[in-house]
Every structure is written in C-alpha cells, then in structure tokens.
Amino acid sequence: MSVNLFAAEAEGGGLPFPPIENLVEWPAYLFEGTFAEFNKIALISVLAMAIPTIMFLAAGRDKVPAGLQNIVEGSVDFIDNQVILPAIGPDGFKFRPLLLSIFFFVFIGNLFEVIPTFQMPLNARMAVPLLLALLVLVVFVGVGIKEQGLGSYLKSSLFPPGVPAAVMPLMFVIELLSTFIIRPFSLAVRLFANMLAGHILLVTFGVLCIALWQASALVVILPFSFGMLVALTGFEIMVSFLQGFVFALLTAVYIGGAMHPHH
C-alpha cells in the first residue's frame, strides 16, 4: 500500500484506494486452483474453530476456578440466560453446544479483523455466513419435524391458524418464502453486510492515515484520522461480539419456533 502511495505522488498526486476485491480476496497458501484451495479465510476458519475448542478443553482441566475457567463458565451462563431461556425455554438446554459453538465461531472469526497480519473478518466473505445460515435452516427444520412430525410441522409453518380460506393460498406462498428462503438468507446477509462494512471503514481510515502521514501539508489532520481509526477498531470489537450474539439468538428463536409453534 505504501509503495502505491509513493507511486501516486510521483505521478502527480492522488490517493489510490485498494480495489474492493483486494480487501476480501487472498492468495492461496496451499492447493491453488483446486477445490481444496487453502487461503487466509480458510486459516481463520480453522482458528475460529480451534481457539474455543482449546479454551473449553483447557478450562475443563482446572479443578479450581481460575481466569480461563471463569471466562468459559461466564460464556455458558451468558448463552443460557440471554439466548436459550428467553428464546426456547428450559427444554432448549440440549442445544447449548450448538449455540455456544455458533457464538464463539462467529465472534472469534470476526475478531481477526483487528488482529495484525490477519486484519480480515471471517464473515466478510458471504460463503461463511451463508454456510452457517444453511446449517441453521437444516437444524430448525429437523427440530420441527422431530418435535411435531412432518405433516404437523409443514401445516404449522405454512398454514397459519385463523386465516380465511380465501387468502390461504397467498399466505402459503408468503410463509414458504419467509420461513425457508428469506429467513436463512437474511440471517446470512445481516452478518456479512455488517462485517464487510466495518472492514471497509477500517481500511478507509487506515489508508487515510498513511496518506496524511506522507502529505506534510495535511499532517495536522492525522491525529483526528488516527483517533477515528482507533475508535472504529474498538467499535468493531463490540460489533464482532454483537454479531455472534445476534446470530446465536436468532438461531435459538428459530429453533424455539419449530419446537413451540403456538407460542
């Protein structure tokens, strides 16, 4: 990036901003050009799965509550009290491993946006949120079929009670699209759009700080730009947590709706 800025000055000025594809596309580390291509996004995905796994395994070995164990236990209590009980109820504790995994995977994957050398949120690529959303779709549909039976689940999902017969065909189409297509699509897009927007903002202010540092006439503005970059970094950490919480909460809401169709 610095080389590009110097080149732009030599050619008569201008502030080159990295092409959008350079913000979300990364060269392959292994197996380039194959379906198993392994790049930065794949590495972050592996780390986002490995880090919470190691955390829970390490915390389970502590016989006396300590720092890591307190964090893990606090996370479990948070998911129980803020996600499972409000959205599903006491019978939703059997989904605790799934909801904890979703929360930590999304949260930690997003945190890589502010980690030096990575500086890329996992969920700023649509493939990852979409895969998670499809997983959630399979889970809540499976739960609905298991708890209600196939016929009863489809009836409760596609034919709301109390609707006049004249508008029932229209409601069937609306519920079909809403439950099985729009719901997972919106779940994925919400996560993807928030993380991509934050990533672009951080890159924008990072490029601006570099440009102001090299442009002596405007160096007086640098502290304000740098301060905004620091503030946005803190904000993105909060957004990373909130997106993990919201994704887990909505997953629980959909599961709860499949288990308790009349509530």
List the main descriptive attributes of the protein structure presented here.
263 residues; disordered N terminus; mainly alpha
Task: Describe the protein's architecture and organization.
The protein has helices at 2-10, 20-24, 40-61, 67-87, 96-111, 127-148, 150-158, 168-214, 222-259. The protein has nine helices and no strands. The protein is globular. It has one domain (2-259). With 263 residues, the chain is mainly α.
Structure described in brief:
By secondary structure, this protein is an all-alpha fold. 72% of the residues lie in helices and 0% in strands.
Order of helices and strands: HHHHHHHHH
What is the straight-line distance between the termini? 54 Å
What oligomeric state is this?
single chain
Helix content: over 70%
Give average pLDDT, whole number.
Answer: 84
Structural class: mainly alpha
Largest beta-sheet characterization: none
Helix run count = 9
SS elements, strand count: 0
**How many individual domains?**
1
Radius of gyration, in Å, reads 23 Å
Which of globular, elongated, flat, extended, rod-shaped describes the shape? globular
What share of the residues does DSSP label as strand, in percent? under 5%
